[in-house]
Amino acid sequence: MAAPVQDAIVVFGDSLTQGGWESYGFTQRLAHDYARKLDVINRGLGGYNTEWALPVLEHILTPATERKNAPIVRILTIWFGANDSCISPSRQHISLERFSANLEQMISMVSNPESKYYSPETHILLLTPPPINTFQRGPELESRNPPRLLDREFDVTAKYAQAVRDVGSKHTLPVVDVYKALWDAVGHEEKALNKYLSDGLHLTADGYTIVYDEIMKTISQKLPKLHYDNLQQVFTPWDEVDVSNVAGSVAKRNIFK
Question: Which residue ranges does the record assign to the SGNH hydrolase-type esterase domain (predicted)?
Fold first, then answer.
């Protein structure tokens, strides 16, 4: 199999990230807008919490000793909390303190010079979980066979969103506040979240539009050099190819203009 030649954006999270490959999802839009500049790699793991995701991140990241001439992960988005915030006794539940610690461990894997996965060229974006619509989630779970009890609470999810903000502030990392964006969009009315959540938890096309817009707004403000408008295509545009020296003129280029 051919080795990848372009640097990448890696999106890492739970089913909200995995669903980003839907035709209306945020990773699909990222892949379109960063085409020929950065590859977009989706590593969404439906149902996972941060405890289960930590060892997976070790498989995703390349140790520094093996990274020579390899493509660079330019942006790593970390989007968890929707499952960690399940209420006990759910097996997905992770305490608020452990959730924050797990996020910090993920960050350290990339940002700590002592880590074997240290990558100073990688920028981390943290995403907050969206608010929960219990008016949708409750009936959806009750309709299952067998019926299930409500597994998430509105106020609990809000605390996990705040934990993401706190971790971001502690480590001076950009936070894409999906929770606030959706909550503000519905005028702080929980029932109105049905426009953005399909089942009280997962996102609709309108919901993913907000996620994408918030990601791009954050990149524009915090990582402007990595906005797609400020990058050049890895391989020369067709109208710049030197027909007398094709191989030389289409050689791989640095993405920065």
Answer: 11-209
Q: How far apart are CA 253 and CA 15, in angstroms?
A: 35
Q: For the chain, what's the residue count?
A: 257
Among this protein's residues, is 119 annotated catalytic?
no
What are the structural domain ranges in the chain? 8-249
Tell me the C-alpha distance between 86 and 200, whole Å: 13
Pick the CATH number of 8-249 from 3.20.20.370, 3.90.1150.10, 3.40.50.1110, 3.30.70.100: 3.40.50.1110
- For residue 207, what is the enclosing H or E element? helix 205-222
Please write the tens of the pLDDT for every residue from 83-116. Answer: 999 999 999 999 999 999 999 999 999 999 999 9
DSSP label of 145: S
